[in-house]
Design goal:
The complex is a heterodimer of chains A (221) and B (213). Helix content of chain A is 79%, strand content 0%. With 221 residues, chain A is mainly α. Chain A has a single domain (18-220), classed as MetI-like fold. The longest helix of chain B has 42 residues, at 3-44. The A-B interface holds A 61, 64-71, 73-74, 76-78, 80, 156, 159-161, 163-164, 167-168, 174, 177-178, 181, 186, 189-190, 192-194, 196-197, 200-201, 204 and B 58, 60-67, 69-70, 73, 79, 145, 148-149, 151-152, 155-156, 158-160, 165-166, 168-170, 172-173, 176, 178, 181-182, 184-185, 188-189, 192-193, 196.
Chain lengths: 221, 213
């Protein structure tokens, strides 16, 4: 497996390891960015106003029950005739990754805001903060630990599921697992599995570091 | 939907459904049995606790497809062996439940424990007759997440060829045929919803002491 990874042949061409890692990260980043744009504002709104709590929890549970592989395959077949070239595969994958990432981001943002000490919120109101001011300067900083943990589990799920993209002929590290299986090259599969595992660990560590630097020191005590 | 195809394949689909249910449920039961003592030990471990829960969290970061591929190396099984899927899911569920059991035991108030001590409960019987019953609501919530996500992860095992509902997805893509894909998705969701309902029912049965609103 080590010799498979260090073999220079696997570092150039259309299946070069750095290229696959880049593709893997690109799919994941696009999906996460879209998921944050959708899930974060909804979570903020629901957490701040306490409106639509049941709907948010229900949607999150329903989305969790959907099998991601089935959804990708379904969308690939539906979109196949609509889009040209790789887009027919790329768009279904990104949609499914977004569907995976929205629930943890949305529910954790909501739960984080809802769990902020009401005394802190009341104090801010008493000091003359507007509703938006309370949200941005009190509730949001206090909710950051939970929001980060939601972002973290969303990221892990997205990177993990992006391996499936290779099955519908896209790139990414799943390529090695799927191609290895087709060619009965077990070492290629193992190399792919180890690289994906390492990638998730590195990204997980980076998010943990980012959260340490952005959290208010008052929350660490 | 092509119902003629469905009728023709009903036997296979029923078989896939049974496999899928077994592959989703067995790991949860196995992991729960292991998570109870491990969760208790982790709760007692004091300083080591964040590190132990961190290791459990790391286990959860390994992508499922990668774990399905790597386990044969460790277990000495064939790549197509369903045992890989069972072990992989057991590990995931265990990682999730150890934390849940720990949290659930934490939620038992110190007053209750003192009262139990005063009534003469020893450690072992206090765990089974006081702490565990009171931790059931939290553990039940963790189990719901575990069963529902297992149903989805099991279908990914179709990529390495284990028989279950995920096989309908790969078949549908190869044939460019929507019926098996839709059937697979509907049955997966139905399985997830019914297992979720079963966990809710069992949690209710075990927590009759809780006031109902």
């Amino acid at each position: 497996m080590i010799s498979w990874i260090t073999n220079p042949q696997h570092w150039t061409g259309s299946d070069a390891i750095p290229l696959l890692i880049g593709q893997h990260l690109a799919y994941s980043a696009v999906a996460l960015a879209i998921a944050v744009l959708i899930g974060f504002p909804i979570g903020l709104y629901v957490g701040h106003t306490r409106r639509g709590v049941v709907m948010v929890a229900g949607t999150a549970n329903a989305l969790r029950a959907l099998p991601s592989l089935g959804l990708i395959v379904l969308l690939v077949i539906l979109f196949g005739p609509v889009f040209a070239s790789d887009l027919a595969f790329l768009i279904p994958c990104v949609i499914v990754l977004v569907l995976l990432a929205v629930p943890p981001i949305m529910t954790n943002t909501y739960a984080g805001i809802a769990a902020v000490d009401p005394a802190a919120v009341d104090a801010a109101r008493g000091m003359g903060y507007s509703s938006l001011g309370v949200l941005l300067h009190v509730e949001l900083p206090c909710a950051l630990p939970l929001i980060f943990s939601g972002l973290r589990s969303a990221t892990l799920q997205v990177i993990s599921t992006a391996t499936i993209a290779a099955y519908v002929s896209l790139g990414g590290l799943g390529r090695l697992i799927i191609d290895g299986l087709a060619q009965r090259d077990y070492f290629e599969m193992v190399a792919g599995a180890v690289l994906v595992g390492a990638l998730t660990l590195v990204v997980d560590l980076l998010i943990a570091l980012a959260s340490r630097f952005t959290l208010s020191r008052g929350l660490m005590r | 939907m092509n119902f003629d195809w469905l009728a023709g394949e009903a036997g296979d689909i029923g078989n896939f459904f049974a496999w899928h249910a077994a592959l989703s449920v067995i790991p949860v039961v196995a992991a729960l049995v292991m998570a109870l003592p491990i969760g208790w030990l982790v709760k007692q471990s004091g300083v080591l606790r964040p590190a132990l829960l961190g290791i459990a969290g790391l286990l959860y970061t390994i992508p499922s497809l990668a774990l399905f591929v790597l386990l044969p190396l460790v277990l000495g099984t064939q790549i197509l062996d369903p045992l890989n899927v069972v072990v992989a899911l057991t590990l995931y569920t265990l990682a999730l439940l150890v934390r849940t059991v720990c949290d659930g035991l934490d939620a038992v108030s110190a007053d209750v424990l003192q009262a139990a001590n005063a009534m003469g409960y020893r450690r072992f019987s206090r765990f089974f007759r006081v702490e565990l019953p009171l931790a059931v609501p939290v553990i039940g919530a963790g189990l719901r997440v575990a069963v529902v996500s297992n149903v989805s992860i099991v279908s990914i095992a179709a990529l390495i060829g284990t028989p279950q509902l995920g096989a309908l997805f790969t078949e549908g893509l190869e044939l460019h045929f929507l019926t098996p894909i839709l059937t697979g998705i509907i049955l997966c969701v139905a399985l997830a919803v019914s297992l979720d309902g079963l966990v809710i029912f069992l949690t209710r049965q075990l927590t009759r002491w809780q006031p109902r609103s």
